[in-house]
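Batch job 17 of 40 flagged for manual review because the log was empty.
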Amino acid sequence: MKQHHFVIISLTAQGHINPTLQLAKNLSRAGARCTFVTTVNGFRKLNNLPSIDGLFYASISDGNDDGAAKMDFGDYLKQLKRAWVAEVAREINLPSAFLVIQSATAFAIYHHLFSINNNGVYSSTSEIELSFPIKLPEFPLFSRDDIPSFLLQNDPYSSFMIPVMREHIQNLEHDPNPRVLINIFDKLEEKSLKILDKIGICSIGPLIPSAFLDGNELEDKSFGCDLFEKSETYCQWLDSKPEGSVVYVAFGSVAMVKEEQKEEVLQSLMESEMPFLWVIRSSKEDDKKKNDEIYGLNGKGMIVPWCSQMEVLFHKSIGCFVSHCGWNSTLESTVAGVPLIGVPQLSDQMTNIKMVEEVWGTGVRARVEEEGGIVKREELKRCLEVLMGDGEKGNEIRRNVKKYRDLAMEAVKVGGLRPTIAVFVFSNISQMKQHHFVIISLPIQGHINPTLQLAKNLSRAGARCTFVTTVNGFRKLNDLPSIDGLFYASISDGNDDGAAKMDFGDYLKQLKRVGSENLKKLIDELAGDGHPVTCLVYTFLWAWVAEVAREINLPSAFLVIQSATAFAIYHHLFSINNNGVYSSTSEVEVAFPIKLPEFPLFSRDDIPSFLLQNDPYSSFMIPVMREHIQNLEHDPNPRVLINTFDKLEEKSLKILDKIGICSIGPLIPSAFLDGNELEDKSFGCDLFEKSETYCQWLDSKPEGSVVYVAFGSVAMVKEEQKEEVLQSLMESEMPFLWVIRSSKEDDKKKNDEIYGLNGKGMIVPWCSQMEVLFHKSIGCFVSHCGWNSTLESTVAGVPLIGVPQLADQTMNIKMVEEVWGTGVRARVEEEEGGIVKREELKRCLEVLMGDGEKGNEIRRNVKKYRDLAMESVKVGGSSHNNLNEFLESL
């Protein structure tokens, strides 16, 4: 047969890269050729890209090859024009697929709001206020706090994100044969997938390194590309902690957590006296030093600038995950079987935590104090007590997490309910023309991880994948995986020499304008080299990729890298067919609560933050999300892949059933999932430099004793919140591993000086989160609840403490706490500037790390979802089958 060649395009954002690159790895291992593409500048930042047969790398210019210009992100997106990958594919007569790296629920919300067929409120305008609650079939109502934040008019990203999401959704609706891959598994978001069924959505998650999932690739222990430098000390620290005793705190790779929020998290951790591992991003060595100086941990915890989240979540010491509830984190937490405490910051994180808390029951949401939007320490302590304690609620959450972990594992097994991403080509791959996927991602760690994991998965399945990000972003990618069939490329976003000082909305416009032309050029070049592209897979903010695909007559698929629940919220708000409140305008207040069928009601604190008008990102994010949803509605054959698994988000997937959504997650390295690729131990590309010390430290800790703390690769946690987290960890007297991002050596030293941990914890600038989550010492994960972290925590069977910062994180922790019962949300003290106070964090730590009924229940839930995640990626599992069906559809 002729080998498939996939170009997988991602922004160079860690949360985009992880699932996207994992998809590229999976496809390469399945026999495809994959070229992972990001921007020229982003590509420069990628570290340790995986080396896998069939996996190649390339970059395309986004117009900023020397670095992102200081421009509005909306303008950047216009310049790069990412949803346009589908347009490029149509123009050159190639199939394309949208890889959804948020949840199916978030995508269902986008579809609801942006769909023309459903008359979504954002389907034709961005200038409208949403009415709340938003109702999706079989979901709790979604309030304005439950939907992706950029869907709200007051969100700073709404102005460009609403058009982008509209473009994504309507591209799919206009496509007669839409293909949407989503980094979830069927059993996780069945209801959301059902809602999205008509847009050809295919769940292919969890897009998580194989070593943590099916075990088929034991070397696949990381996503394979970090944008941040990982600490190397936390593993040994985690090893020294008792099983399930550690609170892992991480707020993702994008959101910047307020200092006040950091302080509340810290104090909650210290007062809870639970060991914790906290990831506090820093790109400067001075910041790392400062972290150590500021946080006097007295041995109770460990702060790291970055880590392998999968390693941490799968470490036996992790008891819960305090997360921003980005979809990657939410899904990883689910796969790891780690309960979540959601502290959502922006985007789909609010939707994710809503699902975590209210639907899956795999965690709790840390409630925000309206003043300043800070989750106070008392609320975080409450959440910690629930997830780390032995109360009935904590026990139920642990049971739920275990259930979804098992379902995630089942989803990727051979013979499970759905075909894994592995065979995102045909079931009878030997007789099929090889696909060539271009998988496009922003150079953001949370985008790269699931996107690159998808590229890896497709490559392993026999396809050719080209992972694409921006030129400048591509430069930042480290250690890109080397896999047969996986290749890399970059396209210019107009800022190839580095990020220009520009409004992000303006950047998105520039990205669309510049990127669409450069993507077409790349596709022409690949064809000229004898590797014609057969499908374009794009993630959030690249809605225009669908337009490009249509223009050149290629199929495209939208890879949703948030939860299906967040996507269901987007669909609810933006769908034209559903008369979504944002379907035709961005200038409208969403009415709360939002109701989705069979879901708890979604308040304004539960939905992705950018869906709210007062969110700084709403101005561009609402239009972007409208574009995504309405692209799908306009596509006669939409394809939406989502990084979840069926059993985790059945209700959300059901809502999204009409837009052809396909759960293909967890998009996690194979070593942590199905085990088919034991060398696939990372997503394969870090934007940050990892520490190398944490593994030995984790090894020294008792099983389940360590609190892993990481707030992702984007959000910057307030110093006050860091302090609250630190103090909660110190007072809880639990060992902790804390990722505090830093890329500069001075910042790393500063962290060491500021946080006098006295052996109680370890702070690292970055880590392999999958390694950490799967480490036996990890007892819980204090996380921002980005979807990657949420999903990784689930796959690792690690309970989550959610401290959502932005985006879909609030939704993720809602799902963790209220739906899956795999974690708890650390509630924000509104009067304290939106900080989660130490007392609240301690409460959460006590729940997840203690032996109370609630903590036990959460651990049971985490184990359940961990097992379900594993099942979903087995041969015959739902994600496995969905990926096959998606490939057959091409």
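Reviewer: the log was empty due to a logging misconfiguration, but the result itself is present. The first strand starts at residue 3 and ends at 13. Unflagging and moving on to job 18.
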